[in-house]
Structures are given as C-alpha cells and as structure tokens.
Amino acid sequence: MINAGIIGGAGYTAGELLRILINHPDVDIAFVQSNSQAGKPIASVHTSLIGETFLHFTAQGDYGKADVLFLCMGHGKSAAFLEATPVPPEVRIIDLSTDFRAESPSHEFVYGLPELQRSRIREANRIANPGCFATAIQLALLPLARHGLLEDDVHIHAVTGATGAGQAPGATTHFSWRDNNLSVYKAFSHQHLAEIRQSLTQLQPGFAHQLNFLPLRGNFSRGIFATAYLYTDLGADKARDLYEAFYAGSPFVFLSPSNPDLKQVVNTNKGVLYLEKHGSRLLIISMIDNLLKGASGQAVQNMNLMFGLDEAAGLRLKPSQF
C-alpha cells in the first residue's frame, strides 16, 4: 500500500483528494496536516466525508511514514514549506500550487500533465500538478501543436465555477454576488498562460502567436467550460483524426460526437472535447471539472503513474457534495 500524507488539508482540493484516496484500493492515508483545523475530525470540515473517515487533522505529520506528500496549500506556500521542512528525499511530492510549474534547472519538479508528460511522470519524484484553466486549454490545443498547426493567434474564452477561487470567502465568491452573475477577470494576463505556452512550445518550438485568453467567473460551483478557435486550413475530419490519435492512450480524454454540456464532466476526472469547423475557423470546446481533472483527480492520476499503478486506479468517482 502507498502511504499518503496531505499538507494543507482544509481546502476544497484537499477535500476532493481525501474523497478519492479514501476509496483508492492501493492507498492508506498516513496523516492530514492543517494548521487551522488541527485536532478536529476531518469530517467536521469536509462534511461529505461523514461516515467515510474517522481521521483527525494533525498539526504536524510524520513525513518519514509517507511514501507521497500532496501539497494542497496556497500559491507560494509550497516552496516555503519545502525550504523549511526536512522531508526525506525518498518521499515523492505532488504539488497542487503554481510554485513549480515553470520547469527550471533550479528544481526537480516535472510538469504533471499526463497527456503530455506520461513517460517523464513515471520516472519523477516530484510533480507540479497543472492549473485547472491550463489543463482544459492544453487539452484543446496540444494535438494541433504536435503537428505544428498552431499557425495563427488562438482566441480562448473559459468560464470557471466558484470553487476555482478556493474555500476562503471573497467579494467575488459569496452567493449573493456570484448567483445570476458573470464577469471577466485577468483578461489576457492570467497566470496559467505561462504553463500553457511552455507546453505548446515543447511540441511546436516555433510557436510565437498570441493566446488571447479571457477567463470568466461563472455562476455555478464547479467545472470549466472552455472554447478556443483559430484559423486553419485543416479540415474537420482530419482534425478529428489528429485528436483521436493524440488521445488514444489517455483513459480520461474523450471526443464528443455532439455539442456537449458542462454537466457531462462535473464530479469526474474526464476531459471532454468537441470540434467544429466554421469556414476557415476551427472551434474546440474543452470541458473539465476544475477540482478533479483540474486539481485533485489529476494529482491522483499522477500518483498512479509515479507508483506504476493503473493510471485510472481509484478515479471512478462517487458524486461529491457540490
């Protein structure tokens, strides 16, 4: 069995991670560390886990008893934690923050998008889990980059649910503001653009076109619905063939034969894609659950690869509370 520890156990991503790992056939949870909730029953915070676990949060985990640590802290906190904490070198680490997504000689983290980096993930000791918007958008564009077909600017709109902002309440997350509402934020400047471009240029080194990305806050709890379009001479049938071939070995990415809707992916680890050709424009719809394929589900997918398990182990999921 794999002994897993979770650092930063009180937030949405940790709750979803616990929901998966409790039912994973090859995992035992060694500890769940939370400074804010230490000593409390986990199910008193993650209430959908009542009857599923009787573990309590701890203020300090025994890192030597873990085979893998999941870092579920806020952005900037993972790097600080690793700098201050003597984690044994044999313990594998999966970081769900943005701290190590930019690959660099200064750290050992591998960017953990399985559909792009599967072989490297299998050999890695440290994984930087991709961002949620970045996952949805990369799934939409990677097959084109593989064949050098990103030959023009790409226009992207993506709507995310309120859980994408995390558990801490804020002016744009409380119900009375979010309900029956829609807004753009971080237009053309979202932090996930850097990791998207990193992956696209890995497959298409000469790619230098604009990624015109408009992120939107949606009035729903979870999920990402992304649309991307670009000008290309690629025909509809050929485009579908390229996507089918690219994702042939990916257990969670599917091409829909008809125009999809977001509820098809919520509470799953799926990425669902749909292609349409409109004159010289290719439209790609990409949908994921931001907390699962965009965070905790993908983290477990990476863990499975790192430990030589079936990539899909433990990821046939029960509905969550959201």
TrEMBL record:
Catalytic reactions of this protein: N-acetyl-L-glutamate 5-semialdehyde + phosphate + NADP(+) = N-acetyl-L-glutamyl 5-phosphate + NADPH + H(+)
Q: What is its main location?
A: cytoplasm
Pathway per the UniProt entry:
Amino-acid biosynthesis; L-arginine biosynthesis; N(2)-acetyl-L-ornithine from L-glutamate: step 3/4
Q: What is its EC number?
A: 1.2.1.38
Domain called Semialdehyde dehydrogenase NAD-binding: residue spans: 3-124
Entry annotation: catalytic residues: 132
Give coiled-coil spans as residue ranges: none
> Which GO BP terms, alphabetically?
L-arginine biosynthetic process
- GO cellular component labels: cytoplasm
Q: Which domain of life is it from?
A: Bacteria
Protein keywords: Amino-acid biosynthesis, Arginine biosynthesis, Cytoplasm, NADP, Oxidoreductase
Localization per record: Cytoplasm
The Swiss-Prot or TrEMBL record annotates one GO molecular function as: NAD binding
UniProt-listed CDD domains: AGPR_1_C, AGPR_1_N
Q: Which PANTHER family does the annotation name?
A: N-ACETYL-GAMMA-GLUTAMYL-PHOSPHATE REDUCTASE, CHLOROPLASTIC-RELATED (PTHR32338:SF10), N-ACETYL-GAMMA-GLUTAMYL-PHOSPHATE REDUCTASE, CHLOROPLASTIC-RELATED-RELATED (PTHR32338)
Q: What functional role does this protein have?
A: Catalyzes the NADPH-dependent reduction of N-acetyl-5-glutamyl phosphate to yield N-acetyl-L-glutamate 5-semialdehyde.
What does the similarity note say? Belongs to the NAGSA dehydrogenase family. Type 1 subfamily.
Question: What is the protein name stated in its UniProt record?
Answer: N-acetyl-gamma-glutamyl-phosphate reductase
